[in-house]
């Protein structure tokens, strides 16, 4: 797990702003057969570009307590509660790409040291010696 400072740094590297649903945001309310989006002051948002962005998040209709980030460059674009009251997140596509690339880089680093780990494990098992920490080898 990483701390808040690392999150800010990673978001900047991805060209985004770090932050979550602690601050004011856009809420979603049922309106007729669809939804109305309200700013922090409770005013309906009518800007077509903003409405397109909100709809593009594809938040399921069953989600409640919807919070949408007013910042289109926020790394978290929306949060909500599902039917089982679990918190769900929608991330900015650039954030998802950035995090996937970092995960792949860590996997490559692990793959590079894996042969040494296997060799050490095989040696430890062969000698029947104890592993560090007092546990048995097998």
From TrEMBL:
UniProt-annotated stretches for the region Disordered: 1-27
GO function terms (MF aspect): DNA binding; isomerase activity
Start-end of Basic and acidic residues biased regions: 1-21
UniProt xrefs under InterPro entries: DNA_brk_join_enz, DNA_topo_I_N_sf, Top1B_N_bact
Keyword terms, alphabetized: Isomerase
Domain DNA topoisomerase IB N-terminal: 34-82
Keyword Isomerase: yes
Name used for this protein in its record: DNA topoisomerase IB
Origin species: Chitinimonas arctica
């Amino acid at each position: 797990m990483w701390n808040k400072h690392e999150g800010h740094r990673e978001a900047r590297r991805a060209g985004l702003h770090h932050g979550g649903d602690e601050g004011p945001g856009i809420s979603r309310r049922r309106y007729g057969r669809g939804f109305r989006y309200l700013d922090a002051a409770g005013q309906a948002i009518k800007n077509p570009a903003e409405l397109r962005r909100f709809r593009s998040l594809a938040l399921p209709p069953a989600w409640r307590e919807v919070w949408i980030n007013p910042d289109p460059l926020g790394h978290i674009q929306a949060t909500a509660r599902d039917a089982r009251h679990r918190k769900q997140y929608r991330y900015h596509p650039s954030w998802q790409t950035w995090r996937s690339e970092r995960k792949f880089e860590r996997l490559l680093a692990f793959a590079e040291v894996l042969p040494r780990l296997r060799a050490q494990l095989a040696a430890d098992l062969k000698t029947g010696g104890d592993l560090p920490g007092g546990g048995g080898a097998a």
